[in-house]
Amino acid sequence: MNVNTQRLSLAGAAGAIEALRDDPPAGVVHRGTAVIAHPHPLFGGTMQNKVVQTLARAFVQGGWSAVRFNFRGVGASAGTYDDGRGEALDLQEVIQAVAPEGALSIAGFSFGAFVACRATVALWPTRPLERLVLVGTAASRFDVPPLPAEAQEHILVIHGEQDETVPLTAVLDWARPQTLPVTVIPAGEHFFHGQLPLLKSLVLRHLR
Fold first, then answer.
1. Which residues are CB-contacts of 143 (< 8 A; sequence separation ≥ 6)?
2. pLDDT of residue 1
3. N or C: fewer beta carbons within 10 Å in the chain?
């Protein structure tokens, strides 16, 4: 992302996990660590995805260290695709490695948002999150679990009105029983082409 990006190799259940870490600039109050999950590994998803990079930039600007990582089987991360189960474990292992204590946020895009929800449900009883940001949540493609009711004020759900990969109706059907608000970007599609600055500003607003 920039010349100060740190390359990490972390230990995971399936072997090495490749990751990148960006920290806020000197003089900015450090608020904690955000771990960001990328889109589907079998369809070109990596930690270099433009939406994932936008989320990382928003967190760094908001005073958070941002850690992106490649799920098992992607890039230099060992292992093979595991339908979200192993990937949720990857996310938790990254958190344990880079943020074993202190303020924690999680973000995810598409498949990564599904994985982020799975990890949040597992973590919440012992490790509540400061913020959870879900973008393009893959609710039409995976059984996304409901989130803890007490987490709601910490959650931002963003979806494109014209998402061609995950229909907005699927996300609303997932959110409705939870009375979980969804922020809709008018005319937005799955990868938010031309609307990444707006996406970043919405995340920054949530972080404030």
1. none
2. 55
3. C
Q: Which residues pair with 158 in a beta bridge?
A: 135, 183
**Cα dist from 76 to 15, 22, 35, 181, whole Å:** 10, 19, 18, 37
Q: Dmax of the chain from CA atoms?
A: 44
pLDDT in tens, 57-112: 999 999 999 999 999 999 999 999 999 999 999 999 999 999 999 999 999 999 99
- Single pTM value for the model: 0.96
Which residue matches tokens 């230990």?
Answer: 11
Tokens describing residue 139: 């609710």
| Cα separations in angstroms, 125 against 32, 36, 53, 147, 181 | 19, 20, 29, 12, 22
Domain 6-207 fold: Rossmann fold (3.40.50)
pLDDT tens digit string along 144-185?
A: 999 999 999 999 999 999 999 999 999 999 999 999 999 999
